[in-house]
Design goal:
The complex is a heterodimer.
Chain A (H helix, E strand, L loop, with lengths): L2 E3 H15 L3 E5 L4 H11 E3 L4 H12 L4 E8 L7 H8 L2 H4 L8 E7 L14 H5 L5 E3 L4 H13 L3 E7 L6 E3 L13 E4 L4 E5 L2 H15 L4 E5 L2 E3 L3 H11 L2 E8 L4 H10 L2 H6 L5 E5 L8 H7 L3 H12 L15
Parallel strand pairs in A: 2-3, 2-4, 4-5, 5-7, 6-7, 10-11, 10-13, 13-14
Antiparallel strand pairs in A: 1-8, 6-12, 9-11
Chain B lengths: L5 H26 L14 H8 L7 E3 L5 H7 L3 H8 L32 H16 L5 E6 L6 H12 L4 E7 L2 E2 L2 E2 H4 L16 E5 L3 H16 L5 E6 L18 H8 L3 H12 L5 H24 L16
Parallel strand pairs in B: 1-2, 2-3, 3-7, 6-7
Antiparallel strand pairs in B: 4-5
Helix pairs in contact in B: 1-2, 1-3, 1-10, 1-11, 2-3, 2-8, 4-11, 5-6
Chain lengths: 331, 323
Amino acid sequence: MRTITYGAAIMEAVAEEMRRDPKTFHLSTDAPGPLLAEFGPERVRATPITESALTGMAIGAAGSGYRPIVDWRLVTFSFVAMDQVVNQAAKIHYMFGGQARFPILFRTTVGGGTRRAAQHSQSPYSMFMNLAGLKMALPSTPRDVKGLIKTAIRDDNPVIVFEAGRLAAQQGEVPDGDVTIPLGVADVKREGRDVTVVALAWLVHEALAAAQRLAAEGISVEVVDPRSLVPMDADAIRASVRKTGRLVVADEAGATAGASAEIVALVTEHPQTFAALQAPPERVCALPVPIPYAPSLEDHVFPDRERIAAAVRRVVAGEGRGDARRTTTGG
Amino acid sequence: MSAVTPQTQRAMLRTMQTIRRFEERASEDFHAGRIHGVVHCYIGEEAVAVGVCAALTDEDRIISTHRGHGHCIAKGADLDRMMAELYGRETGYCKGKGGSMHIADFRIGMLGANGIVAGGIAIITGAGLAAQLDGKGRVAVGFFGDGASNAGPFHESLNIAACWKLPVIYVCENNLWAVNTPASASVSVRDVADRAAGYGMPGVVVDGNDVLAVHEAAAAAVTRARAGEGPTLIECKTYRHRRHTERPDQPDDRPDEEVRTWLARDPIARLKDHLGRQQGQLGEAEWQAMDAEIRAAVEAAVAFAEASPVPPPEAALQDVFAD
């Protein structure tokens, strides 16, 4: 099978869907070169730097029969469009009684590790998860990002695909042809017996590295990648935890009211899964601070394979750390 | 005064009076507890919605504000389904999920009332982009108030619409007050229309209580937009006869003398006088008959709403996503 990067997979997905459906068009504050070259300035539009307007325009065009693709670029800039996201896109289908469809893909990059400091290193997906009315995905591999973006473009609802900035150059196998992956279906990235690590985006790869190390210590780790945040594949996550009896959640975002909290809750509130737990779940998340610039500081704030491995060891030993929101790493 | 035929003027008068009677009934039913939440009455501003929408076809799209009933009626929405929505019934436009601030009818190009000031301006600009991509000469009209003209989406949208020559008509209903803040204290220019110059598009000020003047300005802007020449900003000077909302705790800081002055400029009385006294095209008996028909239509809408089922509680879980 051929190997391409995560970034190339995104561009392939968008281009294939734009070829497939003439009602699609791309709005962003900068027009991606390859798309512009193929589809021209009518369908690949560089907008003024007005995320609020271009997000609202996508809603209006979607309600008028089009299927817009909006690239906010860094998720940071989506905050400028928050009225349009929260008050309009998330609610418009429901509050109008379902009389019109609003098929929109919102593309945006999340995560840190790029030494761009607080405003440009964010992972705020749980803010969006808290709204009813938006679907969202957070893919971790070239194949997943391609398949989920293609599915998102064909979906008749607003869908946010959070692209992991750290993974842009990551290589991975992507089959030729029409790859689609349904929203709401998790993927077991590595099977194991002793501990389930539910990891998101870049931390899927860190969890896989940790699992390899832990295997040498005799600990068998299962790595589950939810891939979609809304809908979340609760069944797959619970099934894995019932099998292993232990849970660690690894997320590059902060712990407080985060996706990690949602994942722990959907495990612990489920009676059969709760009954199968042999240790308190543990979360491995960013420390609760804005993301700093200096590498020594930034690297201390984000979780990585070492902290995941340490958490797995504690969970296996039945030594829960107690509170992922505290400011020490516990690693 | 205008090349609009007496027949069309009568139709405009009928629509304006329909809005007036609908709003009077909505207010009455709100105070009687039959309509919940909040109602923003359009009474006094009817000439704006009617004058603009008379220049549009069913293929053209509009978007409205929190004060949206008038735009719905002017675009041709069904009174029964509107009233049923206000009553929170299953037969309402939004199946009882929207209420007063979220009535929409996409089949007639009414993309919805909107509870966020300036929230609809970018959305209608996107409908303008869709119209441009369609290439069928459709236009998009955004209604908003003087308060919204101070907000970011107004400025962002006018800029982008002018850059791309989008077929959008931005209609500012300047009723002189943003809730209880006067436009004189919050708008930095004398006329909102002056702001058009900053975006390289025509800005027009019209008497928003003169439906024929509004219509003339709108028709010119629509012609320009259909010809691919781009957007226009029309500022309609008007006034709401009532407080910002019907809620009993809603203060009203407007000076009595100002209110009295504007009540005397009633857009409906003005068109009626123009059509009847000046043109001899509307007798008092005909007017009374027209009003009686309108009252009957509003009563029928109330009866329809009252006879309609309330949505079952579990319907709250439907329509979050399209299937």
